[in-house]
Amino acid sequence: MFLQSSIYIVFALLLIVSALLLLVVLMQRPKQEGLGAAFGAQMTDQAFGAQTTDVLKKGTVFFGTLFMLLCFVLAVLMNAQYKRSHPTDLTEGKASAAATQQPETTVPVQSVPQPDTPPATPTSESPEPAEAPAEAQ
């Protein structure tokens, strides 16, 4: 239960951090004043001061690092949950499957009697000899 709730918490934090990272990246002014100028790069300078680019770069590094860290933590938690729900390991699975597998039943091969030798066990009912085929005239 604790593992499942911690996965939900980390996932919610990951969504929040990714949204903040997206906003910080979109607020940055590009070096060549391309499409970023259309989104109001001058407005961020007026609202946040002249050193906005330094703050936004630091924020991008911070949120990017936090995003990668949360992804790693989420992967570790999901792996732990998977191992808890599927307890057999690949190496243990092969050993346990071999131990629980029933031995193969083999069918004894009947030997075909040679034409010169009589059958090993005579039967009480012997088949009638086959009739010679009649020649067609």
- Give the C-alpha Rg: 40 Å
The average pLDDT is 76
**What structural class is derived from the secondary structure elements?**
mainly alpha
H and E string: HHHHH
Distance, first to last CA = 93 Å
Number of H- or I-type helical stretches: 5
Seen as an oligomer or otherwise, the chain set is single chain
Largest sheet: none
Low-confidence stretches: none
Structure description:
There is one protein chain. The protein has a domain at 2-90. The radius of gyration is 40 Å and the shape is rod-shaped. With 137 residues, the protein is mainly α. The N and C termini lie far apart (93 Å). The model has no long low-confidence stretch (mean pLDDT 76). The protein is built from five helices and no strands. Helix 1 (2-27) runs antiparallel to helix 4.
Main attributes?
0% strand; 137 residues; mainly alpha
In short:
With 137 residues, the chain is mainly alpha-helical.
